[in-house]
Amino acid sequence: MAQQQVDAVDAIQSGQTSLGIELGSTRIKACLIGPDHAVIATGSHGWENQFVDRMWTYSVEAIWEGLQAAFADLVANVEAAHGVRLTSVGALGVSAMMHGYLAFDAADELLVPFRTWRNTTTEAAAAELTEELGFNFPLRWSASHLYQAVIDQEPHVGEVAFFTTLAGYVHWRLTGRKVLGVGDASGMFPIDPATRDYDAAMLERFDALVAGRQPGMTASSLLPEVLVAGQDAGALTAAGAALLDPTGGLQPGAVVCPPEGDAGTGMIATNAVAPRTGNISAGTSIFAMVVLERPLTSVHEELDIVTTPAGDLVAMVHCNNGASELGTWAGVFTEFAAAMGVDGGPDAVFETLFRAALEGEADGGGLLAYNYLSGEPITGLAEGRPLVVRTPGSRLTLANFMRTQLYAAFGTLSLGMRVLHDEGVELDSMFAHGGMFRTAGVAQRLLAAAIDAPVTVGDTASEGGAWGIAVLAEHLRAGAGADLSSYLAGQVFADAALDVAAPVAADVEGYGAWLAQYEAGLAIERAATQAIH
């Protein structure tokens, strides 16, 4: 980092810390940093979504139990590492899975269980909004969820007084303010890059569509206020501190930055907020964020147009299925190793498998794999069936199998990225983060082939979005009004260690051949969803 490291205990005791909390799809993570942006301690808690009444959801109880557990873990780790009790922080920020739908009535009561980004029940609403407003509305966007509820005449619709995202909800409970960072807000409703606020003309047309089906309802009045990075989004209240730390140890008063989505904090964590740069985040889902130099010329259903936390336009390629199937196969090989009496542990198995992938044929030896555990809107599939497909002449080896599994994690993503290429969007580099990039030079190299652009991995990638939202909180606390891009370049990443992998020509050619077969084979995936229940 650019600044000389400071003593952690001094930073904690003098209030020169920033806390970032991110609610991911499988883990809630807390990250405490000092004024040099170095990590002082982390805490975490695992959780899983539930499929209830045909909706993917997390209960309110699970949200707060998970936040409290992650914060308690952080407090314990601070004390174990530094010998002091964490009772206050200088600044705070909350990030979470983007999009989805949390609707509340006038008494601030939740009307229906939280509907996450993973739900694909909003096809009719998304299609009508896209057609009528001339802007791509993905299935998981909050406006799509609200309008689908209106179309379906759900009983709760008439009572909605406010709706928001998961990050916006948690921030509201911690500070009392119904606001949202512009990056997360851009996953609720389109943003006008000139005003850094909801697009006024589209809001007017949206209101008319909603009122046509639900007379008297003004949808635009239900959205949270939009803020950009660096703006004051409130302070941690006494009630909020008690929610986060029921023991009473955490004191209120910390300034709080605008709540953001995990896509935006991933961009912060990889210094990918300038035009011609972007980032790729690989976890349960996988998505790419590409900062645009200019608006796209056409509407593309494969692309979400969102923004950076500063409000600059971003093309987002979001795939519901990421590294989960890869992890499942690694689990099988871990079991096999244990059955053979080899106890190297999951990390050793992952590294062995990933290294084997580099020895595979560039086109995967004729193997195909689909990592579809759930539906995938980019390829038009409402459900998923994980598959491995080969012909009698395919070369089934460990190396080819693993190379194909890694290719599968990037397959749908590269189909979406191809749309950007056809639009003339140019990339200088893409930053990648997520657990699959921990084995140096493997997934990074194959991803470079998949997108035909240099891929950078940095020394902050493992902390991900929790560190990213902590940096946004520190930007508010000590950034002195600096614009976000300059702050990141000059104060955060000036001395960061980066590893860049350029595309290898043979890999690019081989991946292109594999992708052509992958695209043709989607008919097999579609048939599997119809035949196997």
Automatic annotation (TrEMBL):
<feature type="domain" description="Carbohydrate kinase FGGY C-terminal">
    <location>
        <begin position="279"/>
        <end position="473"/>
    </location>
</feature>
<feature type="domain" description="Carbohydrate kinase FGGY N-terminal">
    <location>
        <begin position="19"/>
        <end position="243"/>
    </location>
</feature>
<keyword id="KW-0418">Kinase</keyword>
<dbReference type="InterPro" id="IPR043129">
    <property type="entry name" value="ATPase_NBD"/>
</dbReference>
<keyword id="KW-0859">Xylose metabolism</keyword>
<dbReference type="GO" id="GO:0042732">
    <property type="term" value="P:D-xylose metabolic process"/>
</dbReference>
<dbReference type="InterPro" id="IPR050406">
    <property type="entry name" value="FGGY_Carb_Kinase"/>
</dbReference>
<comment type="similarity">
    <text>Belongs to the FGGY kinase family.</text>
</comment>
<dbReference type="GO" id="GO:0016301">
    <property type="term" value="F:kinase activity"/>
</dbReference>
<dbReference type="Pfam" id="PF00370">
    <property type="entry name" value="FGGY_N"/>
</dbReference>
<protein>
    <submittedName>
        <fullName>FGGY-family carbohydrate kinase</fullName>
    </submittedName>
</protein>
<dbReference type="InterPro" id="IPR018484">
    <property type="entry name" value="FGGY_N"/>
</dbReference>
<keyword id="KW-0808">Transferase</keyword>
<keyword id="KW-0119">Carbohydrate metabolism</keyword>
<dbReference type="Pfam" id="PF02782">
    <property type="entry name" value="FGGY_C"/>
</dbReference>
<dbReference type="InterPro" id="IPR018485">
    <property type="entry name" value="FGGY_C"/>
</dbReference>
